[in-house]
Amino acid sequence: MKKIICIFMAVMMVMFALMGCSANQNPAKAATTGKVVINFEGTVAAVDGNEITLESGKVIVISENTVFGGDVDTNVAVSEEIDVGNFIQGYTEDDPEADRITAAKVYCNAKVNPAVGKLVINFEGKIVSISGNEITLDSGKTITVTEATVYSVAGGSVENIVLCEGYTVQGYAEGTASRIHIIF
Predict the structure, then answer these.
(1) Phi-psi map region of 64: left, alpha, beta (phi>0 left; psi -120 to 50 alpha)
(2) For every residue of 25-56, which 3-state class applies, written as one string?
C-alpha cells in the first residue's frame, strides 16, 4: 500500500510540476516550492563568442546580465567557461520554446565524460532509506540533497518530487547531490 501511495504521489507531483513549468514563473524561485526553475537545458554543440548553440539547435545568448550559479541561499558556484560538449541548464525570461533566447541564469555547466559522451554519474542504486536530507542507497552510499539539487525523470527536470524508498536513482554528487535522475 505504501508503494502505491508513493507512486500515486510521484505521478501527481510530476503532473503538477509539468503544469507549473508551462506558466511564466519568477526566475529566482518557483513561488510554491522554493526550488529554482529550469526552462532550458542541453549539450553544447558550438560556442561563438557569447552565443551558445545546443545540440537541439537552440541558441542561448549569454549577456552581461546572465548570472552563473544558484541563489544567494544556495551559494552554488558555476563556471562561466562554457565549452563544446558541456551540459548546461538554466532559466530564461524569454519564451523558452523560442529558437534563440537570452539566459537570465545558468545553474549547471557540467563537463561530460569524453570517453562515453555522457554526464559523469558517480552514484546509482535503489533507495533503501531516507532520513531528512540523506538518502541511503542499496550499495550503502549515502547521498545528501539540498534545495539546489535538481531532480529529473525521463521527460525532463521536475520540481516537488517526493523521493520514496524503492526508487532507483542515479546522479552526480560531490558532498551534496547536484542532480538526481529518478528511474522509478
Answers:
(1) alpha
(2) CCCCCCCCCCCCCCCEEEEEEEEECCEEEECC
Do 79 and 109 contact (CB within 8 A), yes or no?
yes
pLDDT digits over 126-167, tens only?
899 999 989 999 988 888 888 878 777 655 556 667 788 888
Assessment of whether the complete model's pTM goes beyond 0.70: no
- 137's grid cell: 542507497
Q: Are residues 58 and 107 in the same domain?
A: yes
- How confident is the model over 93-125, as pLDDT tens digits? 999 899 999 999 887 777 765 554 555 667 778
- Last-in-domain residue among 113, 140, 164: 113
Strand partners, 131: 134
